[in-house]
Amino acid sequence: MHSFLHSKLLYNLDHNIKVKVNNNLSVLLAISCGQDSLCLLKLFLDIQNIINIKLGIIHIDHQFRIDSNVNTQHMQNIIKLLNTPAYIYQLKPQIYSELEFRNMRYEIYIKTASIYSYNLIATAHTATDKLETSLNNMFKGGNLDSLHSLVWKRKIYKKLDIIRPLLNFTRGEISWLCRYYSLPIWVDYTNLYYINKRNRIRHELIPYLKQYYQHNLDKQMTIFLNKTYYDMEYLRQCTIKVYYYLRHPTYIAINYKLLLTQHLALQIRVLKLFFNYNLQTKLNDTLLKKILWNLENNTTTYIESYKLTLKIYKTWLYII
């Protein structure tokens, strides 16, 4: 018997992610032994025959916990009970930053999915993860885009997309499903360490906000983030249109005279896209505003940290 969360997953795949179900559809499930991951695994296994998809499991042992080996063995025991292809990787014990971990994970995901012909990679991010990530990025001084680093679907490599089908599942719903089906959860004790600021947001800040400000915080923040997501997407589309209109047809240059007639928000976004697209370089807002100030004053800009010179000739801004 399927639960209301099975129906919710099917709805997400059809309406929010817009997955086209066909005989060639294959999904690689990126999972650990935590409750979110096992919920994702359970739901997809149950609906596999309903929508006729090929499933695979990928698990990465980061080797940064003392129980990593036992945890991986637990994962293998779960996989043995399933008739599903699985790919388990173990990283060399080393101290990595959060960004390095993330980059390595996605590199392994992409390589595995490409070799074994998967169309989609599914992760177990939930509404709670989205809330925590948005708050964390906001505290770091992020912009509108950083509030939406977790989205339903994103292309990450050629014909390969990453999807997050549990993105509107609350922690309470996940917990209920795991208890209802008695899923063999492995608790990650490092989630209790407050040296990681995100854990403090999860265990102290969010409960505090729920108790004293908004008991329905998850739902209300989801509404807020959905509204700002549409604004962000509109700005992105405007940025791309303006960039294509202003770029030089032959050289790496942009019409700065026309750029300066745009709203400041678009000026910054177009410049950021200009450098990212042509040089794979991400400049911070301070540098971008300095460049705009120099453009208004017809001044050449030299960016020492990147060894770049921005030269003005007639109406064009060139990179030298």
TrEMBL record:
InterPro entries: Rossmann-like_a/b/a_fold, TilS/TtcA_N, tRNA_Ile_lys_synt, tRNA_Ile_lys_synt_N. It is found in: Plastid, Chloroplast. It is an enzyme of class 6 (ligase). It holds the Pfam family ATP_bind_3. Residues 27-204 form the tRNA(Ile)-lysidine/2-thiocytidine synthase N-terminal domain. Keywords: ATP-binding, Chloroplast, Ligase, Nucleotide-binding, Plastid, tRNA processing. Ligates lysine onto the cytidine present at position 34 of the AUA codon-specific tRNA(Ile) that contains the anticodon CAU, in an ATP-dependent manner. Cytidine is converted to lysidine, thus changing the amino acid specificity of the tRNA from methionine to isoleucine. This is tRNA(Ile)-lysidine synthase, chloroplastic. It comes from Trichogloeopsis pedicellata. The gene is tilS.
